[in-house]
Amino acid sequence: MLRITLPLQKQVTPVPTISRVAIIGGGFTGATIARLLALHGQYWPHEIVIFEPRADLGGGLAYDTNDPSLRLNVAAHRMRAVPGDPQAFLRWLSNSGRLGRDPGAMANGAIYARRADFAAFMAGQIQPFIDDGIVRHVRERAERICRRHGRWQIEGDGGAALQADVVVIATGHPPPTPPGELASHLSVDHRFMPDPSRPEALSAIRRDDKVLVVGAGLTALDALGALRARGHRAEITLVSRTGYLPQPQAAGDFAPHGDFLIGVPNTALSLLERVRFALREVTEAGLPWQSVFEALRHQGQAIWRALPLLEQRRVLRHLRRRFEAHRYRMPPQIAELVERDRIAGRLKTCAGRIVAVRPGRAEIAIDIATKPHGTVERHAAQWVIVATGPDHGNVIGSQSCLAELESLGLLTKDPRGLGIACDHDSRALARDGYPVEDLFVAGPLARGAFGELTGVPEIAAQAERIAQQILAMSVATTRTITIRSM
Q1: What CATH architecture does domain 180-247+329-386 belong to?
Q2: 148: helix, coil or strand?
Q3: Which of 256, 356, 392, 396 satisfies CB 3.0 to 4.6 Å to 402 for a cystine?
Q4: β pairing state of 476-477 and 15-16
Q5: Are 153 and 147 in contact (CB under 8 A)?
Q6: FAD-dependent urate hydroxylase HpyO/Asp monooxygenase CreE-like FAD/NAD(P)-binding domain location, by residue (predicted)?
């Protein structure tokens, strides 16, 4: 009898290790990461979970508004929100009919869409994955995040509780922190608005009430635009440390100008000198100065990474406000409103710091030590609005789930005061300085590591990198079965 033993090896189809991903925050950043993960087709139903109290995903604080006066400050064709499809939003805007219903969108030869339209676009991007069950939307705010049996335990403020293998913190911008003088004297005064982003916040202001806005950036101009759209006609004063307003957008299209990656500047001073040289070049060539700041935006992350921590802090201390006024520009519609109001005397700006606050029955009096000589000026208004922008230095303290992670040593503040400390792979840095492999920081909260991480194209690119890293963590395992035939 002939007996033959043939060892046969059969490779079975790889079995993926499916990991549940919990995304904290469902604005543009969180929704984009969820969509990119869902597109890969690797996850089972409800294995991608977003904690977001808003009804719709994709809008977040920045775009979730029904106020038609609030527009994107970037032209629609530059809103490269979908990786691999840079014109997706512009195409949707036209095909959906929303552009045809917005006659005021066209300005300076470009389309500046309403923020509500961009929110609707983003909601449409993620909704199919919610409908088919791949993405689960938990309409709660994450209250607790901790470790339990080697996994993450997440609990919401409405009773939801689940475990996950990976957590992505994508909560976006924290609320502003009012200056101390305002907080101590006006904290219980109904005429004091520490957060103008709430939809009902401005509705109580009457058309002839004087308004003092603390801040002079895009948030302050949002308040200006929203009030004027409601028929407000009284004086509005913008108070800030520098008095700089966001600069206007340039008309038409233009290419970025300036190569800052050849001999990358490694000090704040050398960076400033390079920028000034590039500005002189474009001025002499008759090109818009905005082209230099477009180059800075494109090359910003590499420039930031080349600066030592000490020089990064110098940039923030000495150059930040000037940079932001030129980098985060106002849409043409708001620029026109600002110019019109200035000429009519309805809009005033003041550079200085608040030194005294005296609330009265009819008005609130505020003393400001003005620049450059410290002369004290008294301003009076019926309403005071805080529009100082997000307090990134206090982001951990503003959210209980982040504070708990910090108490566990799994999260730390960014040493530059720009949010949460993370490495260049967007992994959160623990108290000991080492990255937490399964905890990611996405969006503006990671600005400390990346520098340029506020615009939609930059956030979309980071979201794509994070999604690829998470997918790589779900490594396919191959079971090798040996069959012996006798």
Answers
A1: 3-Layer(bba) Sandwich (3.50)
A2: strand
A3: 396
A4: antiparallel
A5: yes
A6: 22-173
Rg of the chain in Å (alpha carbons):
25
CA 316 to chain centroid, in Å, comes to 18
Residue reference for tokens 């000198």: 273
In degrees, to the nearest 5, what angle opens at C-alpha 182 toward C-alphas 181 and 187?
Answer: 125
Strands 427-429 and 435-441, sheet pairing: antiparallel
User: From residue 360, how far is each of 97, 207, 364 by CA, in Å?
Assistant: 50, 20, 5
pLDDT along the chain (486 residues), means of 10: 44 52 97 96 92 95 89 94 93 95 94 96 96 96 94 96 96 84 89 78 92 95 94 96 93 90 93 96 95 95 96 95 94 97 96 94 94 91 92 88 96 95 97 96 96 93 96 56 34
pLDDT, residue 17, reads 53
What pTM does this model have? Answer: 0.90
Say yes or no: do domains 16-175+392-477 and 180-247+329-386 share a fold: yes
With beta carbons less than 8 A apart as the criterion, state whether 282 and 291 touch.
yes
Distance (Å) of CA 382 to CA 366, 370, 440:
11, 21, 44
User: What are the residue boundaries of the structural domains of the chain, listed by start?
Assistant: 16-175+392-477, 180-247+329-386, 268-327
Adjacent-strand bridge partners of 239: 214, 350
Q: What is the pLDDT of residue 176?
A: 84
The backbone region for 477, taken as left when phi is positive above 0, alpha when psi lies in -120 to 50, beta otherwise, is beta
Closest C-alpha among 196, 217, 472 to residue 338 = 217
The string over 59-88, giving b where at least 16 C-beta atoms fall within 10 Å of a residue's C-beta and e elsewhere, is bbbbbbbebebbbbbbbbebbbbbbeeeeb
∠ at Cα 63 (237, 209), nearest 5°?
A: 25
